[in-house]
């Protein structure tokens, strides 16, 4: 007889809300664009970067979700206890990274509207910003946020799965190059960019901070937290593989992608004329859910600076969305912004994850909880890989922006 307590409806909503808040942040418009651009450049060898990002994802997500949940404290507060001032420094980095990423998110929304209606990219970005603001201004906004991210996440996965199936990608070649890529050293910039777009900056903290806000903390809730983290990693991993294989399939068939909106070309080639509009739906879903995730999580890092930020958190979120939208309206360059945003967040990851790993061994933070050694090993690998790749990709980032 199973004596394990059943989850209530509210707990299930929270679980999947946290999962999809993290997952949809990870598979937002930046990832769609990054995956398309780099798959076009490296073809089947890009599978190596996909696998590397999933391994780093495991190292980051499991450590951060569990340590923060056990401590009952947000990432910046834990980092401050590891080393005074570190948390404030980390918070500033993540807020800056969140702005950079959210500019990319609204840019992606603009590209989505452009694919559906042919509108100017800036018009679509502005509309998305308004929709996201409304979600946080209505009553029971957190519940709405959970439901919206789940619906949009399932929609994206379903459509990309269909495109992947009909594009008939070279599965065997991709599997081979996942472990034996051509010119592996050239994978450093793609790896750090992909990591930044899927687990960098604010993204690793999105689900954990959602659970903390809902009170799912302490060792008594560790099983629930682990389930959430595992489902989140599985969801993002599946989506990454599906999208990569879909892009690889159409490129193998001879597709020539548009420089202005490369991921849209994938859907148009695979599905015909209607493909552009279907892509627009996917990109809008990715963009809106990522705007929500970036704003919610970045604003949660402001809570410790002053009680005003904590008391008026929804207003902070609204200002965050409005500001990042306005910045994009004056900057433009959406495809470049999406890639640069992911790279910037990837450079933040070694610092934030390193602080969490140190915290996992401090009783003053986690009490008598013993954090599994194998998780720490995965975390250390993630820190080392992203640190080395980050430094070596700095020149590549400069060339990308200038070129």
Automatic annotation (TrEMBL):
This is Manganese transport protein MntH. The keyword Phosphoprotein does not apply. One of its GO terms (biological process) is iron ion transmembrane transport. GO terms for cellular component: plasma membrane. Keywords: Membrane, Transmembrane, Transmembrane helix. The chain crosses the membrane at residues 42-62, 82-104, 116-138, 147-167, 187-208, 229-258, 278-300, 312-331, 337-360, 372-394. InterPro entries: NRAMP_fam. GO terms for molecular function: cadmium ion transmembrane transporter activity; manganese ion transmembrane transporter activity. It is found in: Membrane. It comes from Jeotgalicoccus saudimassiliensis. The lineage of its organism: Bacteria, Bacillati, Bacillota, Bacilli, Bacillales. It is a multi-pass membrane protein.
């Amino acid at each position: 007889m199973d004596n394990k307590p059943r989850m209530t409806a509210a707990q299930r909503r929270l679980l999947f809300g946290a999962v999809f808040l993290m997952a949809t942040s990870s598979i937002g418009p930046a990832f769609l664009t990054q995956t398309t651009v780099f798959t076009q450049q490296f073809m089947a060898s890009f599978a190596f970067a996909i696998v590397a990002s999933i391994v780093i994802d495991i190292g980051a997500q499991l450590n951060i979700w569990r340590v923060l949940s056990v401590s009952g404290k947000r990432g910046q507060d834990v980092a401050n206890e590891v080393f005074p001032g570190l948390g404030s420094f980390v918070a500033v980095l993540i807020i800056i990274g969140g702005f950079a990423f959210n500019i990319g998110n609204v840019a992606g929304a603009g590209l989505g509207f452009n694919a559906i209606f042919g509108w100017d990219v800036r018009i679509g970005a502005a509309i998305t910003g308004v929709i996201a603001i409304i979600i946080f201004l209505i009553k029971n906004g957190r519940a709405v946020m959970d439901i919206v991210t789940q619906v949009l996440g399932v929609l994206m996965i379903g459509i990309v799965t269909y495109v992947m199936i009909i594009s008939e990608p070279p599965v065997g070649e991709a599997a081979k190059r996942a472990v034996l890529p051509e010119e592996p050293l050239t994978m450093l910039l793609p790896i750090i960019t992909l990591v930044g777009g899927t687990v960098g900056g604010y993204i690793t903290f999105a689900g954990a901070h959602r659970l903390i806000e809902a009170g799912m903390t302490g060792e008594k809730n560790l099983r629930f937290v682990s389930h959430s983290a595992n489902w989140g990693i599985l969801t993002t991993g599946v989506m990454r593989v599906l999208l990569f294989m879909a892009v690889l399939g159409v490129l193998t068939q001879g597709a020539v992608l548009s420089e202005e909106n490369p991921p849209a070309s994938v859907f148009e080639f695979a599905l015909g004329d209607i493909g552009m509009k279907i892509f627009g739906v996917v990109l809008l879903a990715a963009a809106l859910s990522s705007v929500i995730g970036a704003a919610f999580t970045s604003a949660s890092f402001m809570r410790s600076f002053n009680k005003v930020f904590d008391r008026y958190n929804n207003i902070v979120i609204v200002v965050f969305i409005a500001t990042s939208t306005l910045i994009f309206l004056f900057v433009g360059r959406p495809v470049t912004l999406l890639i640069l945003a992911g790279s910037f967040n990837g450079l933040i990851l070694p610092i934030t994850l390193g602080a969490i790993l140190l915290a996992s061994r401090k009783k003053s933070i986690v009490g008598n909880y013993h954090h599994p050694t194998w998780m720490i090993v995965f975390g250390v690998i993630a820190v080392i890989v992203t640190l080395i790749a980050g430094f070596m990709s700095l020149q590549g980032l400069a060339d990308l922006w200038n070129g």
